[in-house]
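We now fix the convention by which a protein and its fold are recorded. The integers have meaning only within a learned vocabulary of local backbone shapes. The record below shows the convention in full.
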Amino acid sequence: MPKLRSARERADLINTYANRLSHRGDEARALHWYEQATQADPAWAVPWFNIGLVHKYRGEWAQSLAANRQALESDGGHEGACWNLGIAATALRDWPSAREAWRRYGIPLPEGEGPIEIEGSLGAVRIDPEGNAEVVWCDRIDPARGRIRNVPFPGSGHRYADIVLHDGAANGKRRIGENEYLVFDELELWQASPYSTFEAWIATPAPELLSTLAERIHRGGGQIEDWTQSVRYICKACSEGDPDQAHDHPAVGDSSDTRWIGLAAVEESMVRAAIDDWLGEHPEASLVEFRRSLAAGVTD
């Protein structure tokens, strides 16, 4: 076997082996060999970045932050390390480090200290990516956080107005009209919202009249979604790609008069009152079932 000509060559060989272990899901051994690569060539940023990457996906934020800092000491222009440093710092509420990372990446930030609040653009996030994998719309707060605008399915464990920490690598896309949005996978629930999720099954021969129920819910500070109408079920390949350019999926419809409604509110009494008032105005409709399906999160 020919002798390696440099420390970088040896580090590259070890790093490649660690990559294979990581792709197979053997994270513990991958970390060991990434660390060996850093010892072979301490000035090389790549294995430090990879160590930070493994810790990021394990939710080990302090370790991820430290590894990405080390990568940036070796290569101050490493964009991936900048971004993942920003994510780790945001997870840790380390706002000076988060601001440093985003500015270093080239993202303009408002002046100030503490939590970052950027006037939000719309974004798409895949919540519960290892479980039921539901894509929701969010108001972007900063490069790594979004506040959920939808009423997610209760099985996702997420609520309207939850703040989620998400990855920076896009994993699919969605469109609204002519506008295209990248989809980012959730990394963790960053802050639970004070809203509970409720489900209602409402029988009505005129589902278009539910728009007036929505107005009542919105006036009460809540959110509502007709899951019978708005939800689109697609396969994993399309979800992580471009669902508008992929193969067709069977339509999921409901030929009955019963609509499955998701609601979000801080107080159940508001939802109950809004539904009761609406039913009083529409005697042809009826409430088949109502329940609270996900309690509000615990907030600081």
Q: What stands out?
A: The chain has ten helices and nine strands. Residues 249-253 have pLDDT under 50 and may be disordered.
